[in-house]
Design a protein that fits this description.
The chain contains ten helices and twelve strands. It is an alpha/beta fold. It starts with 23 loop residues before the first strand and ends with a helix. The protein has a single domain (24-346), classed as Alpha-Beta Barrel (TIM Barrel), CATH 3.20.20. The chain is globular. A twelve-stranded mixed sheet has the order 7-8-9-6-5-4-3-2-1-10-11-12. A hairpin with a 7-residue loop joins strand 7 and strand 8 (248-252). The protein is 28% helix and 16% strand. The structure holds iron/sulfur cluster (SF4). Iron/sulfur cluster binds at residues 273-275, 278, 280, 292-294, 328-329.
Length: 348
Amino acid sequence: MSEPVAPEQTPERLVDGFGRVHRDLRISVTDRCNFRCTYCMPEEGMAWLGRDEILTFEETARIARVFVERFGVDSIRLTGGEPTVRAHLPVLVEQLAGLRVGGDGPLVDIAMTTNGSTLRNVAHDLVAAGLRRINVSLDSLRADRFLELTRRDELAKVLDGIRAAAEAGLDPVKVNVVLVGGVNDDEVLDFARFGRDEGVTVRFIEFMPLDADDGWQSAQVVPQDEIVRRIAAEFPVEPVVRGSEPAERFRYLDRPVDEPGSIVGVIPSVTRPFCESCDRVRLTAEGQIRNCLFALDEFDLHTPLRNGASDDDLAAVMHEAVGAKWAGHSIGTVQFIRPRKSMSQIGG
Ligand code: SF4
């Protein structure tokens, strides 16, 4: 008679009141950035967090371990500010890359969102440490406009960074473009061509009210339908089935679907919210859990972590945070209240 097999350990799940299972953890590793994008922060920068306020790599890795091993989170995205301005970032990536979903399942998938300006220098080390996928934020292909939007003359570095990411083996390499009506929306076709020529997936992001100077206007939002209409006028496309990822994806009809650059995406956060399938939870650089990008409340892990909390204590805060999640943002309704923090303080 063969030995009884211990039933496979199925991790608890972080499920909110709407039945959404949270599997995607966004970790902001710093609130600092080497760019000064006009819709994100003022020229002089923000009131940065102090060194002792920011979680250490060990603290971040411990929190991530509880999310991954205890709750079956299977995807981690590193964000900022600009994550690559945090010194020794590959050390953290290495600590995270060894985590197994549910404790004994597959390795967690590590991705990052960056402005791309340092990728030529860091891409190889990050891949060696375990990074697999990357999103590069790029809002203009024109050097003068890039300078105007980011207050940095670094377009060439970012374009080279995108190539360095592909050379280092990051796959896919995606390019995120925040479209602001009357600012850069005349570049939709330029970006579509760029993605096709460079073999990267370009994703247009509808402008969201998370800018630091509260200047967001709904009139500046370029809706998904308009973006797709402009692309299809030159490059006919068809929709591709969508998973839980935020982007709606479209395939160029003149390209084989598995060819790099054959897909273009739109993240229609404002005109077609995708909150009903949201599986994301966020950790800020100072150790607060945000159960939504637009959350008004945060759940503190920093204090318990620095006061000897057990993994059970941390898990209880994670449960509470996800349990309190609302159905979704209410942008465009009278209920909508802007969060106190801006995108650079939350992380994408
Ligand atoms: S707005 Fe909030 S609930 Fe909606 S998809 Fe984004 S993070 Fe999820």
